[in-house]
């Protein structure tokens, strides 16, 4: 349980940095930390549960499309996390579009790696 909480904290920090950097992502809710945390919670749950299965099933299409399918899957999961966070908690992060989610994925991966190395995860 502690490991999940640390990963959730790392994801929350990564999402906060991403929203502050990218103009295509907006936090919904007050105070903003609740929006970051709700979105990060659903992103962490999706990344841990259904994302590996979907990526495995879509692997042949991803290879044929040179990775475009993987980008679309990431975009869809970001939209799903946003929809769930806003729908259930009333706070979250709104992802502006496909390319904003691509840029967000890159920034979240970099910041998560840095934060995870600091925390020892």
From TrEMBL:
- Cross-referenced Pfam families: Phage_holin_4_2
Transmembrane spans? 5-27, 33-50, 57-78, 98-118
Alphabetized UniProt keyword annotations: Membrane, Transmembrane, Transmembrane helix
Matching entries from InterPro entries are given as: Phage_holin_4_2 (IPR007165)
Q: Does the keyword Transmembrane apply?
A: yes
Q: Protein name, please?
A: Phage holin family protein
